[in-house]
Automatic annotation (TrEMBL):
GO molecular function, one term: transcription cis-regulatory region binding
Domain (HTH lacI-type): residue spans on this chain: 22-60
Keyword terms of this UniProt record: DNA-binding, Transcription, Transcription regulation
Species of provenance: Veronia nyctiphanis
Protein's recorded name: Autoinducer 2-binding periplasmic protein LuxP
Amino acid sequence: MNGYNSKTIFKKVFIIKRFSAKQIAAQAGVGLATVDRVLNNRGNVHAQTVDKVHKAIEELEGQYQVNQIKGRTFYFDLLMDTPARFSEQVKSAILAVIPEMASYKIRFRFRFFENISTEEMAKEILNTDRKQCQGLIIKASNLPEIRECIDKLSKKMPVVTVVTDLPESKRVAYIGLDNYSAGQTAAFLLGNWLPTSQAQVLSVTSSEAFHGEEQRQAGFLDGIAAYPHLSVIRISGGQGLANSTEKHVISACSYYKDQIRGVYSIGGGNRAILNGLRYIGVKSPIFIGHDLDAENTFLLKKRYIDAVIDHKLADDARAAIQFLLNSYRKTPLISAYQSSINVITPFSLPPRATAAKR
């Protein structure tokens, strides 16, 4: 039976009956007689031609599945545990790409939290099912309670993680940077930009619970090991929020204020980091941040920071929506996606960002 069970054979026969031999021949670029020989196993057909006919049937089935859901309304939720400056960026990216999905009516609901507890986030995830929702895009901490809720929800709808992954959960895809490589990139920049004298560099995360920040930190520490004159001061717990981040920097760095020469800001709050360093007397460190939001655009323009590791949120938003739709198309349009790492300096700001005001 060539490895097919009866259910598989029935499915293949059903799909073939959905399309005429003329349609299959046109899609494959072969003659009707060839299609007839392939479908009826009459032999005398080159293996490559047989594969071409089978591939044509798969392509027709994919197009059929897409057409079946055209015009359908989908309600998707975006749930994020992140500072408002970043959640608003993601929201803008989502709204910008929705018109591209003109074949479908897509409605998004946005649920943003700056400092939500694990218990509250777990409830928010499970409540998604009560909101007439067909899919969830989420940024959340990588904790067992959160993964358990994702697994429960995934039985009823597709879930996609963005920015930071939940790799042991049953989400259908992670959309975002290779965060380990992003950390290595930051280490490369600092290692080459700083003098070869002994110095301290800060590595600042918002929380140790986010997998993406954990991966950035790991890549940075591995990368900075190639520069033995640099030692790392690790700071965490500010949640990327201004007051708490500034306090953490002041508390952790006062003793090392004369040795600090560089900063890698993994979790954001860059203005707060700079304020904390200025408070203890550290001036003009080489500073690498993440994400080209309004705050970082201003800091780059003023040369308060030196580079931002960025990626195109619109591309991420588009991919996230397509992965959710894949679950309803049955035949995916994309099967994998990873954001490109872009290093933005004061001299490579995009035109719109260059025009940004304080």
